[in-house]
Each structure stands twice: as C-alpha cells, then as structure tokens.
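A favour, since you know our structure tokens better than I do. Would you make up a two-line entry for one protein for me to read? Write everything out right here, beneath this request.
=====
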Amino acid sequence: MIFVLRFSVLKDMGEPFDAIGFKVTDEASYQALAEEAHQRGIHSKAQRSQGTLHGCCWSLGMGLEVWTVLYESKEGLFYADCRPAFRAHQIYKLYPWEIVEYEADGEAIARGVLLNADIELVFELQNLTEINPSEFRDQAIAAAVSGLAYRAQVIPKGKIPEFSPLAMHSRRKKLAENDYFVTGPITSWRTLKNEHTTSDLVWITIDLLAFKLEVLVNRADLKGELKHGTWLSADIWLQGHILTESELRARYEGIDRDIPRIEYWAKLRRGN
C-alpha cells in the first residue's frame, strides 16, 4: 500500500517548480505530478538501517528533472518527497564535504567547500539513491550544482557580486539553509522549453568572482530584458547532483586545471 504525501513541503514561497516549468499550487497538483513522475521515471534505491529509499528520476530533457522518493519501512510504502531538479553543466570540486540525510523525509543536504576558494555551498542533493557516499571516502567530490529561482530580475548593473544566505535578505519564514540570494554580471543565457508543459525557461550563468553559477528561471517570472552588460539578481533554491567516476569520464574534455596535481595520483595504489 502506498500512502500519499501531504502538501507540507511547499513553504511560504513554494518550492521552485515554476523554474522548471510546472505550476504546482495545491495538494492535488502536487500529488498528480508525483504520481506521473513515479510512473515515467527511472528508479533507483538505497538501503538504510530503518528502511529503504526508492528514488525515481523523471527526465524531461535539457537537464530538467522531477524527483520523487518513496520511503519503505515496516509500516508500509509512502511518498516522502517530490521536487524539481536541473542537472547543470558547471561542475564543482568540493572538499571537505558532508551529507546530512533525513531518511524518512527522503531528503539529503550536501555541504562542501569549493577547492581553491573559501566558499561553502549548501545544496539539496537530488540523486542520493543513485550514489553511495561511502565510496568517495576522504577525497574531493565532484558536483553539478545550480539554482532554481524563486524570483529573478535583470538589473542594469550592481556594485559587487554576491552569494549569501537568503535569510540575510528576506523576512520570509521557513527559509531553507540552501536558499540563497545571488547577484552578478550575466555571462551567458539560453532559452529552454519544457516540452511536457510547453513552458519557456531561461538558463542564465552569472559571474560571482570566485565561481560561476547557473540559474534556471521561468521566462514568465523573469523581470527585465536580457542583454549584454546587465546583471541578474535572484532568490534561488540551490540544488545539485554528485557525479560518479563514470559520469565524470563521460564529460571529460581535457585536464581540469582546478584540481591539485597530487590528486592525479591519489587512486594509483599498489595492489601488492
């Protein structure tokens, strides 16, 4: 028996389903999306001490995804979470790092420090059931991280690029620790379309000095005109995916100069 998930995940400002092209406004639309994603997606699972997490990734193309997680225990099987996702192109190396998992809620928060930069990223880990964190041991992890915008505005020019917790800028209640305020010059943008809903989206990259960040926003929610020389100001929900060795090899396009040379040899060990 599968028990439905209550619509309690929607905070005051709502989860950023709009950013990937879905209009989720009430419990009925939330449940319908969770059911469709579960039926159409690719399934994976992870065993835990008190139960089993059943993850499901519905890929809509162009990096757009909807994730559902079912939690199985002695009491039965029920929806723990449903959330929007976007697989970014920008990859970050993080060390040190940690993953905090909320088993029964089907969620995990990852936090890590950017290599060569004293900046901590806290993001919703989407693909928890596709990876085994223990395999990474005491080494840097590679993560594709991006922001789904609650709101976004094109501005003529700002003063200094900023990446800071949204709680420092907003009086809204129930902010998550992976909610951020970002502002910086726009380096590139591209329009996307959610073919399932026909919603127009904009994929924007901004320069935050220490790193570049990809932000996805629904075109209908983006204020201002995109053009060269402008900046983006946005409230975002930071989320991402940890990449496995096979995924990194598939993306390989040359030497990553951001990785310390000593790490090139980290996995070359004598077997005798």
Observations:
- The mean pLDDT is 88.
- The helical segments are 27-40, 245-251.
- The chain is about 10% helix and 50% strand.
